[in-house]
Structures are given as structure tokens and as C-alpha cells.
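So, could you explain this one?
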Amino acid sequence: MDEPIDIKTLGLLVRRERERRGRLSLRAAAEQADVPFNTLARVEKGELPDLANFRRIVAWLGVPPERFFDPPRVRTESTPEVIALHLARDPNLSEAAAEKIASLVRELYGALASAEPGVSVHLRASHTFVPAAARKLGELLERIQEAVVARPPVEQ
């Protein structure tokens, strides 16, 4: 399994930054970055630091943390397509049976899947609300949602 972070690049950048800053020793660089000496030494050798030290190191390097992470993978196939693929590979189903089940799944998915996800709100202090206050808040949120849905789209 791949590392979630491009640690080789991080170690290389630390080494280059030390050289750029006048051939800093690891101890001096660690002090500047506000990380333990051993942590910075391990990072240069290709080991992954903890999150707090990672953040300090990238701040010292002056690079965004997301530079070291793989971009998120975007799923391109739909759920019914994935299910149909699994059904087609099922050794217990004939080709016709797999297609019939897949067809049912597509139909049900189309009928039941929500195109627009609903809005959800988490109230940390909800246990302190009296029922009337919670009801009023719910009514207010419903009116806001109705107003937003009824508003004509903005032309760009």
C-alpha cells in the first residue's frame, strides 16, 4: 500500500533547505523548525513524522502541506454500474440472471436515489434546547430552505 504522504520529497526538501540556509546542521534546522532533532533526522532518512511535527516542518520549508499528498481519487462509475460489474463476476449467477438483477438495481436506484442531498445541521447544544426552541429553529430552517429553492438561478 502506498504511503499517504510523499515522504521522500519531504526529506529531500528538508536536506535542500538546510543547504540553502547556509549548510545548517540538523540540530540548527530542527531548532528553527521547532521540531526535535531526532524527528528531523528521521524525516531526512525517509520516515514519516507525526502530524504536529509535519505541520511545523512544512511551515519551516514554506510549502503548503497538500503538496505532499496524492490528489483524491474521484470515482467515475456510478453505484449501479459497480453493482452490475460485481453481479457479472459472480460465479453463482448466469449472465442472464446477473443482468436481470442489475436491471432491477438500476431501476430502484433511479427511483430512490436523491439527486440533491438534504441539508443536515449538528447542534452541539441540542440537549439544552427546550422542545419549543428546537421546533422554532426547525421551522426557521425550513423557511430558509424554501426561500433558497424558490429563488431563480443566478446567471453568470
